[in-house]
Write a structure and sequence with these properties.
This protein is mainly beta and 331 residues long. The protein has 2 helices and 16 strands. Helix content is 10%, strand content 27%. Strands 1, 2, 3, 5 and 6 form a 5-stranded antiparallel beta sheet that branches. It has a 5-stranded mixed beta sheet with strand order 12-11-10-14-16, with no helix packed on it. A hairpin with a 5-residue loop joins strand 10 (205-212) and strand 11.
Length: 331
């Protein structure tokens, strides 16, 4: 990176930092937020904003509560809808990641987090010694989704504009030798826009499912399409996996060309007539959407009681196929 761009990038970062800092200062001045380093607090706790737990590919918000010497409880901004700025807290986490607004995220691949316990520690730099910790249980009873799409159709080309007509020749306005102005010629018609092409059909999808036995059985599932595999761990008690293969949208039709303007009549005695404007071309039609791709589900016999956890969709495509055969553990 050149020295010039380094300076510009630093300037942009500095401006963004000043904007955020200025926004917080304004909120504090207006009383909607407070600075923790100027606020006495005696204890701290942290809890999830909604139901406890987090699943692969999901997010979960935290709420931190701080108690003042008089018993008043302050809460964080965001999900906590309180006055405490997240910038005044430090968040460290394992297994999950946390952003600067107290929102936790878990990677989508279940193999990375399976068997682990996400953990969060909250500290207050302005109040050394204050800290709170929270274990985040893993959950798999979410509505997981896997969607693939066919390619979009190509847009039609626009029509050409019609040529403008020629102006009529100039006549004579001399009262002793008058002559008529010439008529303008008609404008040319615009050409039609071409139709958009049809969208591509959805990719074929292969789904393999087996049961991960244990005190609480879970479904191991792999979804493969176009050489790309996604893995899921689904709790059949409340969790689902929706898989769709949709055709691509049709291309938009091209716009018809505008008709050319008629040429103006020439000046004379009398003036010539102006030519007619040309007709605009017709807009092209949008292409039709592609059909859904084929979906095949290969499931282990132990999975049969839980097949209702899978929601399949491929509009216009062939009926999904289910095949029961032994499926080994997927990981």
């Amino acid at each position: 990176m050149s020295k010039f761009w380094s300076i510009v990038w630093v300037a942009v970062l500095g401006t963004a930092s000043m904007t955020l800092s200025g926004c917080a200062a304004l909120q504090v001045k207006m009383g909607s937020k407070i600075y923790l380093n100027k606020t006495p607090v005696t204890s701290i706790s942290v809890e999830p904003a909604n139901l406890p737990g987090i699943g692969p590919g999901e997010k979960s918000s935290l709420v931190v509560k701080l108690t003042q010497p008089d018993g008043t409880v302050l809460q964080t901004e965001g999900a906590g809808k309180g006055k405490v700025l997240w910038q005044d807290l430090a968040v460290s986490a394992t297994v999950v990641t946390a952003n600067k607004k107290g929102v936790l995220s878990l990677v989508a691949d279940p193999r990375i987090s399976e068997g682990k316990l996400p953990h969060v520690i909250i500290t207050v730099p302005g109040h050394p010694g204050l800290s709170a910790e929270l274990d985040i249980p893993l959950r798999y009873d979410y509505k997981f989704t896997a969607s693939v799409f066919g390619s979009s159709g190509f847009s039609g080309t626009n029509g050409s504009d019609g040529l403008s007509g020629m102006s009529g020749s100039t006549g004579s306005l001399d009262p002793n030798h008058p002559s008529a102005g010439g008529n303008g010629t008609d404008g040319g018609n615009g050409s039609d826009g071409s139709d958009g092409s049809r969208g591509g059909d959805g990719p074929s999808v292969q789904i393999h499912v087996t049961l991960r036995s244990g005190n609480h059985p879970l479904l191991q599932a792999s979804v493969t399409a176009e050489g790309r595999e996604q893995l899921f761990l689904v709790d059949p008690e409340g969790g689902t996996l929706a898989v769709s293969s949709d055709g691509g949208s049709g291309g938009s039709g091209g716009k018809g060309g505008r008709g050319g303007r008629g040429g103006s009549g020439g000046i004379g005695s009398p003036n010539g007539s102006s030519g007619s404007d040309g007709h605009s071309g017709r807009d092209g039609s949008s292409g039709s959407s592609g059909r859904g791709g084929s979906i095949k589900v290969t499931y282990d016999p132990q999975v049969k009681p839980y097949l209702s956890a899978f929601k399949l969709s491929n509009p216009g495509g062939p009926k999904p196929v289910f095949e029961e055969t032994p499926v080994a553990p997927l990981w």
